[in-house]
Amino acid sequence: MKNRGGQVTIFIIIGIVIVSAIVGLVVFKDRIFSTGISPNIQPIYNTFLFCLEEDTLTGINILESQGGYIELPDFEPGSSYMPFGSQLNFLGNPIPYWYYVSGNNVQKEQVPSMNNIEGELENFIEGKIRNCVFDSYYEQGFEIDLGEPEVSVNVGEDNVEVNLNMGFSVNYGEDNANVKSHSIDVKSNFGKLYDSAKTIYEKEQEDLFLENYAVDTLRLYAPVDGVEMTCSPLTWSADKVFEDLKEAIEINTLALKVEGGDYSLAKKENKYFVVDVGVSDVDVRFVNSPDWANGFEVAPSEGNVLVSKPVGNQPGLGVIGFCYVPYHFVYNVRYPVLVQVSLGLEIFQFPVAVVLEGNQPRQALDVGAIEVESPQLCEYKNTPIEVSTYDGKLNSVDAEISYKCFSEFCEIGKTTNGYIQEKFPQCANGYVVAKADGFREANYELSTISSGSVDIILDRLYEREINLKLAGVAYGGNALVSFVSDKDSKTIVYPETRKVELSEGQYEIQVQIYKSSSLKIEKSVQEQCVEVPRSGVGGIFGLTEEQCFNIEIPEQIISNALVGGGKENYYILESQLSGSSAIEINALSLATPKSLEQLQDNYLLFEDKELDIKFK
Question: Of 284, 281, 67, 282, nearest to 273 (Cα)?
Answer without folding.
Answer: 284
